[in-house]
Amino acid sequence: MSILKERFDVAVIGAGPAGSMAAKYAAKSGANAVILEEHPAVGWPVECAGLLGLGALAESELPGSSFVLRRMKGAAIYSPGGNRLDFKAQDPRASVVDRRLFDRAAACEALHEGVEMRLCSPVRRIRREGEESVLSIGGGDEIRASIVISAEGVRGRLARQAGIMPPELVLSGAQLELPFAVEDPESVEVHLGAAPGLFAWVIPTGEETARIGLCARERGCEHLKRFLGQEVIRKRILGSATTINVGGLPLGPPPVTVAQGLLVVGDAAGQVKPTSGGGIYPGLVAAKIAGGVAAAAAMEGDGSAQRLQEYDRIWRANLGRELEIGMRANRMLNRMSAKECDELVNYLAGRPALIKTIEEHGDIDRPSSLMIKMLFHLDWDGLKLAGLLRYALG
């Protein structure tokens, strides 16, 4: 059957977690939906550290845990000068996942709701004809849809063509997976100061394997090479890298995430936590909203930007303040000197009550709640930290 003659209520571009969830919720809301994925397989290429908080796993609505490699209970945070802060909860707070399996499981859930999947289907351009969008696909085929959801990733080429502004900032990310002397298989490592713009990480994937990566304002691969050469990392490397991943990390959503006939979700909309670089949780939350709004608009026959603003309003009500606080916290940390960062980590490491608060209330999906609780445990020496937290919280 020729794609040329097909028509859908909702067409989703991209089969990542946000795209699959948006299509799933469009179908659950009664729409005839299709996912258009440019690659020959879902879950490839991998451009993610694969550390998901409890909130992200819950939002994924995925049965089972075949994609989970390890459960994480804590973290070790290193300052530029080598000061260290350790904390560890009683129960797991995050999971390390195989992103290929995770993405495929999410896509299968969409298929179970009746969503159609088209692999090897890169969308070249979108044009609006009356109340429909015509999507030109590689190979010369076209499909028609009332509403299009762009979940095309950080580049967001089609979203930009529609007039959606890019995210505020795009960091350069690089990651290796390799044999590594893991210190604690239940804790991730965060190395502050190793990458201007965010930080470097070590995420255990096994007893003697780990993902080592970072995100920086530019030249992520160069910063990663330098990080791997640091003594604290170099001496623990046990062999050559088995996988290498590079990609961009968008921070700060644009002012508007809709246009006529189009909604934008996930990385393309800058829906990424600026404190950790994680995009799965906010992407899934926004995707559910997008799917529902897109389906309703399609069945109403109203694809106007004004009608689709409902999506923009609702996702910002759910996530906007958290992302804004995250951007403030990110800017705050990037303005700190190495000495100030050393002092901050040293201060926190010497406060058992603060560490207990982190262990009990730490939430990588919504970190602002922890920031608020930390304010109640600061003494006179912590006035500077209090000021920083208040700045971040607005």
Automatic annotation (TrEMBL):
Keyword list (alphabetical) reads: Oxidoreductase
Gene Ontology terms, MF aspect: geranylgeranyl diphosphate reductase activity
Does the keyword Oxidoreductase feature in the UniProt annotation? yes
SUPFAM superfamilies recorded? FAD/NAD(P)-binding domain (SSF51905)
Q: Which residues form a coiled coil?
A: none
| EC class (word) | oxidoreductase
State whether keyword Oxidoreductase applies: yes
Q: What is its EC number?
A: 1.3.1.83
**What NCBIfam families does this protein's entry cite?**
GG-red-SF
The identity of this protein, by name, is Geranylgeranyl diphosphate reductase
Organism, as annotated: hydrocarbon metagenome
